Structure formats: structure tokens, C-alpha cells
Amino acid sequence: xxxxxxxxxxxxxxxxxxxxxxxxxxxxxxxxxxxxxxxxxxxxxxxxxxxxxxxxxxxxxxxxxxxxxxxxxxxxxxxxxxxxxxxxxxxxxxxxxxxxxxxxxxxxxxxxxxxxxxxxxxxxxxxxxxxxxxxxxxxxxxxxxxxxxxxxxxxxxxxxxxxxxxxxxxxxxxxxxxxxxxxxxxxxxxxxxxxxxxxxxxxxxxxxxxxxxxxxxxxxxxxxxxxxxxxxxxxxxxxxxxxxxxxxxxxxxxxxxxxxxxxxxxxxxxxxxxxxxxxxxxxxxxxxxxxxxxxxxxxxxxxxxxxxxxxxxxxxxxxxxxxxxxxxxxxxxxxxxxxxxxxxxxxxxxxxxxxxxxxxxxxxxxxxxxxxxxxxxxxxxxxxxxxxxxxxxxxxxxxxx
Length: 401
Ligand code: PLP
Prior knowledge:
Helices cover 37% and strands 18% of the residues. It is α/β, with parallel strands linked by helices and 401 residues long. A hairpin with a 2-residue loop joins strand 1 and strand 2. The two termini are 39 Å apart. Pyridoxal-5'-phosphate is lined by residues 105-107, 110, 138-140, 190, 194-195, 223, 225-226, 251. Pyridoxal-5'-phosphate binds next to helix 5.
């Protein structure tokens, strides 16, 4: 019989760096765990790359999907649907934004943000279209969002890229200010850079960006596709800084695993989009929106986000302890809430990931030397202990050489 691995490697375009014999065929999930096709259980500290915020197959999400699937799976955006309207209201009532636009992914949410920033930049008799983003950023894989992504490794082979993007240093306000000119429309930033290796924006940098945008008439766009939805211990990462964006993008965790991406904007900015300016066939799909309402209900339960902050502090303390235990192997510890990373001093991240997997714990290697952790926010203290025990054992082995 052909295995899932064999079928996938034969028929699917080879864009994911999957290694034969190493990859899991994930069969089911529940809470903080997934099971492979052989029935082996793994603690999931990757969390669907920040998608499974309330864990796998949360009963509230399963119920919301089942109810909606039996009622209406899709209709055109020519018509209204209640789940779209309900979700928009929750998002607006719990953010700095006044209106939402629905897409299906993070890249689409950012694409909408880029288009809106350009439309707004040209709506007042000016020719503002340029967007400044940060080095090490990641904003998606469409041509515009891959150009917004300032890591050149994602650009190779796709040139010519989209015009009108410039890159400045993350946490380096002066370098942003130096790039602003009369054609600049916006600054786009992740409050916590995820794919770049988990780097947290500083408070004075974020406040400085807001002041710079206000002074120069620019829009401030926060890409919270990875760090939003409670991951930092606040519903939105920006809340921690006391700084609000003009446009916010959200995706990953919102649909409880179903594809959805949302661009949120302030009223005066959103008004730059007129009927016909932007659209998505599946955007605002009622099943995804119903699931998203259920996810937000859980995140907004009293004490939930406080719990994430407490777990985040414990996790960070433990990572720092590991860094002290293995100083020749573990360098910097970075993160906020339940998005965190360990910088290894040797290019062994893939090997550590592999050994952790063999021991029943999924962690994520970024590049050669960064280990990233994006556990479900519902992870329990006992589950964190289990993950740390395995990680410590693997680091110990690796440190011993
Ligand atoms: N923005 C950020 C900050 C991300 O981390 C990602 C994906 O990792 C994206 C955008 C792109 O999202 P998607 O893969 O859903 O298009």
C-alpha cells in the first residue's frame, strides 16, 4: 500500500522542506497533542505554526463548524451572512479598528492592507504609495507580500518584484525616519517578528513609529498574523505598547484551524476602498467566520489572557534556566507570552527538532540555529513540564556532543 508520505512526495509540488523518513503523517489532534497514523502521540509545541491557539479540535470550534456546515457552507459576497456580521462586530468591539475586510490567509490580509494603504495614499491628491517594512520581516508569499518581506532569500527567482517597498532596521527608529519621503504611504511592522526568528519590538521603537507616522501623515500597519490573538498575552500584541495601528492584519489562529484572514482598518482609512476595489470569493466564508466567533469567545473569557501571560513567564524562566545549564549550546532567549525562541550557538536546530520529535515533542527549527515555540495557548502546566523535560534531555545530549 502507498503510504501518505509516498503519495505526497509523488503528487504534491515540492515547496515544503519535508525530509523523507523524518516527517510525520498527522492523523488527529486534541488539545495540545497530535497523533500520527501509527497512533503515536506528540506534544505539539508548534501549534500549527500559531494556528491552533485554543488547541486542536476545541469542542467549541467543532460545534460551531458542525452547526454552520449543516446550515450554509458558502454563498456569494453579493449577499449578507450572519456569521460574517457577528465576527466583524466582535473584532471591531475588541480592537482599535472600525471595519474589517475578509480574506482567507495572512498573505491576503496583508495584500489587502497594502492595496488599502496605496488607495488611501492617493485619495487626498497626493502620490503616496511606498511602504517601509523591517529587515527580518515576513508578510506572506504573494508577489506584493513577498516584496514586503525584507528577507532576500524569499525574493530569489521571482524578480522583478513589486515596486514601492523599502526596508529599515527592526527596532531602529532612525532608519525608518531616514527612508520616509513625500511618496511614503505607510510603515508595516510585526510587533513580534515570527518567521524572522522571534524578535520583540521595543516600547520606544513602537511609540516612535506611531509618532513618526502621525508627523509625516503615514499609516501604521501592524501585521499580527502570527503574534495576534492572545499569543503575546494580550489579544493584540500592540496593546502591550499603548500604541494603536491604522490597519491591523490577522489570520492564522482566528479560524481555529479553518482558513481565514482579516484586514481591520480605522473608518477614515477603510473609506478609501469603494465597491469594486477589492474582493475575495471565499472571503468571509460562513463556516470559517462561525469558527472564528467561537475562538474569540474562548480568548475573551475572563482570565484567559492573564493565564497566557503567567504561562509565558514560566516558559521564559525555564528557557533561561536551560540557557544557564547549557551555556556553550544555548544563547539568547527571546519572546513574549507564548511565542518564544532559543538561539543555539551551533547549527543544530534541525537535529534538536528531530530528536525532540523522536521523543514525542514537536518543536520548530528556523534556519540552522533557532528553535521556535508556538504552543496552543491552552497548554497546561503539566504539558509545559513534559515539553521542557524532553527539550532539556535533548539539549543535554547535544551539549555532550
Ligand atoms: N504575516 C506573518 C507575520 C506571518 O507569520 C505569516 C505566515 O507565517 C504571514 C503573514 C502569511 O500568512 P499565510 O501563510 O496565512 O499567508
